[in-house]
Amino acid sequence: MRLTAVIMAGGVGERFWPKSRQSCPKQFLSLTSDGETMIQKTVKRLAPLVSQKDIYIITNEHYLSLVHEQLPDLPPENVIAEPCPRNTAPAIGLAASLIQKKYQDAVMFFLPSDHLIHHEKNYIDTLRKASQAALQDKNLITLGITPTYPETGYGYIKYQQNGAQDGVYPVECFVEKPDLQTAESYLKSGNYLWNSGMFIWKASSILHSIKKYMPELYQGLQIIADAYGTEEFHSVLNQKFPELPSESIDFGVMEKANHIFTIPGDFGWDDVGSWLALERINQTDENQNMLDGDILTIDSHNCTVAGNGRMIAMLGVQDLVIVDTDDALLICNKNQTQDIKKILAELKAEHKSELL
Amino acid sequence: MRLTAVIMAGGVGERFWPKSRQSCPKQFLSLTSDGETMIQKTVKRLAPLVSQKDIYIITNEHYLSLVHEQLPDLPPENVIAEPCPRNTAPAIGLAASLIQKKYQDAVMFFLPSDHLIHHEKNYIDTLRKASQAALQDKNLITLGITPTYPETGYGYIKYQQNGAQDGVYPVECFVEKPDLQTAESYLKSGNYLWNSGMFIWKASSILHSIKKYMPELYQGLQIIADAYGTEEFHSVLNQKFPELPSESIDFGVMEKANHIFTIPGDFGWDDVGSWLALERINQTDENQNMLDGDILTIDSHNCTVAGNGRMIAMLGVQDLVIVDTDDALLICNKNQTQDIKKILAELKAEHKSELL
Question: Which domains does chain B have, with CATH numbers?
Fold first, then answer.
């Protein structure tokens, strides 16, 4: 069966401010030394499995030109702009409906656009295995990540280790972000995986479940899919999509459906969730500084610095995140990167929308 | 007798990098919220005592255009460029020789260009009193500053409290920068003043002492002064000045001469010796931050920030000095501002002269 990929690229990540802006969020930034943006990497690493003509991007109108610019080889009609954000269920359902209309059926890899994968061969092998398991009718596969520490910022997947078939495990349940103690018990038990937000299924399988658990969404999607390929498509999409229920695929389908399976992934996944990720994914110097740019350090250690052409001199400082851009500079304690949203709230309150 | 002022503006201060550069040192910067540069303030505060036509600036060739630009009302011929730095004795001697040639004799206020004075009326009153004391033949007056804490970065003046005449005290001796224990004992004794580097004397008095204690300098100065007012002046200056002995007036004259007096000054003197001075001379917010520019702080305190147009967002940081310029950014621990010279040494080693 045909293999397709649907990449979600509509997010307006705030955690990489001031490099990420509403006009250019994380997936369109390069956060690695090779200069490739996150979404370019996401498409590129699929090459052994999916041809570019079968890769779809779900984004929003504001990012259409960024997508076309950064992915010039993708068929333009494969880039679909949501008229408004409606969480993951409508986006997934829309992609599945359009792919069903075009190909009758196909396997879909549903993937975020802003994660990093260190071991790409393992990743492709895992996706291939998942695509096999997805051929079974109604099967919904989610990739789990074998946890390496008690992270409290992710949801977890509880899976049944004794029910494995060819490395594919039945999912017992999904659990919300835990507190540290709970996360430690998850890690210890060995029955929990991080929920990576990567899904594999046939279009027919996910649409079957959407029809069953989210009938209102299903009906709306049918109307939009009917217009696909006609001149009315965009006006129908723009009219109907905003009326779809806003819901995550996790809550709307995965937590309710049967036939849910997971594959524990071990391919160096990194969701690059904050500036702190940069010291994981890039080289640090002998003082544990991650320095990108023209940076001079004296008596300074454990800092993460993203420069912007201009020279940055650091003297006697530690545990800082420093991010330089043309119109804004961030100097942040490493323990408070989660509070960058407070800066954005403040800028919003001061009507400094040009800096958001 | 005519009152004149000679302002020293040839220094290449490094402690205000990256705002101060070799091309624009501290005396030409504005470090206060009123936008006036240090040298502009120095000239302006003399207005009640000395007219601009009697104010002379000793600088070097590189800063001639900065002086003319910032002090457009000063007679251009009053701005004298040293061909090379030769410490204070030749500069003072040169100014005294030229003033003697022009006016026969005059009282000279010899002043640094990069200090701040908070109580200008007290300052002018003190200078006026000093100018009276300077009328007595051979008298050399130095302004001392009543110390308020045991500073180890200044030299001290030991004076005889029981020999006062109209608030003018005989100087017993000059002492070098003390260690903390010694500085504490000076403070306690009440017989010591900070050496501010401000001198008052008649041109004839200082030349008399230079002739006596630095005869080689005196002879060289005579040759230059003879050419003053002729077409040859600049070529004579450029040829002879570099041959003069490089010496401070303190070591060359003040520590040897008799007739040395001091007036304890109490006029809110600040030598603005490092970025830390900014929080003394400017307002701080409720979190002890001195913020100059478009600065947003969250959970941040005790920082000194000199912005440069661009927005600076600070989150969870403390005890930092942050200085933004077009081509260089400094982020420095408050306890290490004395090490800024290490940055400059590094830049020099890397041949980044454009940043010096």
Answer: 3-270 (3.90.550.10), 278-355 (no CATH)
